[in-house]
Structures are given as C-alpha cells and as structure tokens.
Amino acid sequence: MITLILAESSLELVPPDLARHQSVLSHAQRLGRDASEILLDNSWHFAAMKGLRNEIKRGRPDLVHHSMLEAVSTPLYRRDALDLLVHTVQDKVIRLGRQVRVPRSYHRFAGLVEKLYREGRVSAGDVLLEMSDMTFPEILDEINPPTVVGLSSRGTPSSYAKVAAGLPDGACVVIGGFQKGGFSEKTTKRLDSVCSVDDGPLEGHVVVSRMLYEYEKTIFM
Amino acid sequence: MITLILAESSLELVPPDLARHQSVLSHAQRLGRDASEILLDNSWHFAAMKGLRNEIKRGRPDLVHHSMLEAVSTPLYRRDALDLLVHTVQDKVIRLGRQVRVPRSYHRFAGLVEKLYREGRVSAGDVLLEMSDMTFPEILDEINPPTVVGLSSRGTPSSYAKVAAGLPDGACVVIGGFQKGGFSEKTTKRLDSVCSVDDGPLEGHVVVSRMLYEYEKTIFM
Fold this sequence. Notes:
Oligomer: homodimer
Number of strands of chain A: 8
C-alpha cells in the first residue's frame, strides 16, 4: 500500500478577480453557469489569465484529470493498494474513497469537481470524494508516512524501478499536478528524497502511470 | 521502431440517422455547430445511441483521446521510434506525423478531429494529421510489418515485458480503441498472435502506456 499525492495541482474555481473577464463570462454563459462556479481553464480563459500570480501552476484541470484517471485505472488502485490525494495549488485537498470511478469524459469530470467545490463532498457511485482545506505539510502530518519520495526532473537521477524497489509499505510518492516548473520550497522541505526518473521532463500522467506500474510489479508479480 | 495501431476505435461523427435526435440537437446547439459536424459522444448522446448497431464500439472519443495522448507523451514517440495509427470502427484511419502535439484539452482535441473529418488533413504545429478510408487489413498490407501482435484480455497469457522482448524492429502492436468487447473477426484474422498482458480487462490507455514503456526499455535502456 502506498499513497500518491498529486501536489500543487493546477485545479481551482475561477477566482473572483477574473470572473468578470470577457473570456470567462462567455465561456460560463455557454455552459449556462455562473462564472464563479466553473473551473479555471487556461484553454478557455487564456486571455483572462495573463499575468496571474503563479500562472504556470494554474488553470490546467485537464492535466489533473489525466493524472487522476491514470491512477484510478491501475490494478493497484482497483485492488485497494493505492490511496490517492489531490493537493491543489490553493491548498485544498481532495480525498478519494475506494473504487471511485473518475469520469472519463472531461465535462463530467469538471461537473464533479465543481460540485465538490460547492458542496465539500460528493458521491460517485457508492463512495465519496471529499474536499477540505489543507496544506501539503498538514497532509503529511496527518498520514505520517515512513518516507516521502518526490519525483521531479530536478531530482537525483534514478529510475521508476529503483524508486519502486525502495518504497516501504505506507510510503508516500509525490508527483506534481502542474504543467511546468518544480515543487515549491514549502513542498520540497517535506520530501525525504527527490528522484528524477526520466531523461527529460514528462507529462505528469506518464510519470504516474510508470511509477504505479513498477510499484505494482514489486507487490503483485 | 514499432507501429502502434489503435484498432476499431470508437471515433466518428454523428451519423445522419441520429442527427435529428433531441439529445444530439441540443448538444450541437450548445456548441453552436451543426449536428452532422460533431463527434458522436455517448456521454452527451446516450439517449440517441440506444439500440445503435455495434453500440459497444461507438461514441467514446474520450477513450481514443486518452490512448492517443498516452502514446504521443512517451519518450518513444518523441524520439521518433513510434508510429501511431488510429483506425476507427468505420474504417477511417488517422495518421500522425512526427512530433504531433495532440491537444490535452478535450474540447480542442474534438475540434481538431472534427476538422480532420471535414478537411481530410489538418496541421498541428509544423506537421500534419491525415485521415483516409482504409480497413484494418488494408493498413497492414500497406505497412507490411514483420509481425502483428494484438493485445487483448482474451489472448494467451503473457506480460508487457515478454511481449516487448519479442518485438522485432518494425513490428506492429494492436490495441483496441474501444471500451468493451474483443477485436472483430476481420481484425483478429490479421493478428499473428494475441496476448493478454494483465489479469483483468484494463482501460486501453493503461495498456498503451505500459506496453510502450516496456518496449522503450528494450531499446533505450
């Protein structure tokens, strides 16, 4: 059993200062929704997002969707040997129950997450997704894993298989839920080690998939 | 170098008989598009699709999107050691040039594929995606690979690593681009072997990711 944390994930609702921007308003109107209730999405709100603080880690719900899907589609998760937590760049955390079916269609995923922001918890099948306010250090204080390994292209050269072989039961693996850049200092401080598992920077979902596959091998095969 | 074919992929435009169904019309209207120009999508057109012939392999562009993204996000593809072909259940084939950036956002992906249906070729960056009419056997006649390996939960028990180790240069790997069910007889006839690489049925994108990763190991590591 391990815990995967997608850290500093670029998932949030449209912030109040951007809710009146034309690109946001017209997208919200198209969806028949209030601008303050929809996910910030760079592919629709690019014009509104120009110059936003920490822009590089914001408004990419598509990336978070891909990484979450990757994780919950593994035999590891289906056999209850993986806990998945999504920490956002705004210090929210989404906890997934067991056997959650993350919607494959993006618009359904967005609807689910928007509901989660409104209501704090939603059922997806028999189980729940819950959202609460929590910083990355607070999450680690709560789950108290024996070791915390971050994966980053800025880390010490290693490989998926080597990292997997070194994970004790209960370990926590941390992968960025953002497009570019490294972990913040606040996150980095809580990592016991940072490993680079590939030659170049890769999409988060690729790293999630390969890491979980190699860990599966160590426990199922 | 290998070729990956996503076979019988559930990707198509709304067929003419369904274009006047209420669920399709209201979705098309929301997009500001003509119903005949949008992708058939079970998550929006479920009511219209009831009883459609071969329903199980139709209207899941989200799955095709995930599998394509998985393939083009690998170092294998980025280093020009992978050709990707998407064969659809309606016998269209999409060829991707080198270094194509498949859009991460679903709505951009859908827009790109819809344009491809209208125009037959589209540029994405410096390179092209092209669509033509071609059956699965015709694709194989054209590329003439030394061996064709299908992956299916109905195949002979094997593993990703074993399949990868047995792939000669130029080999073709075939993975279903649909949600459920096996390859059709027409496809199966052209497979030299069919291997089952996991204990249970898995999402196509998971199989794509793991298979390409193991093949990468045989050539890059």
